[in-house]
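Can anyone check this?
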Amino acid sequence: IEKTIEAMDGSIQLYELEALGCPTPEYETQPPSFTADRECKALQTCTDDEFELKPPTENSDRQCQQHYQCKSNEYETTAPTATSDRECTPSLGNCPEPTFEITPLTKYADRICQRWTECDLSKQYVSVKPNHKNDRECKNLTLCLRSEDLEENIAPTEFSDRTCQ
């Protein structure tokens, strides 16, 4: 770096300032002048809970930012690194009808839903009603056997077995 200064006698003097930068790992906070040395400062180091948002330059420090923490209704889809943030995706929420949850929401995956079991109402009845957490359960209808002199006295419904007498 060259700098010109006018001397008291009116002559112009040319000076060279040392152009070396700050030693690694530092950055320049104040450039050198004829009256002061260059000022350098140590670069900040991002912690394990942070990532480098902006890299350092010759005259600026790096900027670190806390990694995003997925909320309870989100799961991680991209892991954080030293230079990138974590990415999270919202969960689909409770399984919508007509499905139930077979795998719960985890830190790294959404819940998995499966369609409710269908009962064959000509041979079965619904023994357990389904919801977003549980499958429908079916049981076979009781057979009224003529060989045992049994006849149906109460017909089956979607949610109850027949009775024989």
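Reply from J.R.: I decoded it. The chain has a mean pLDDT of 90.
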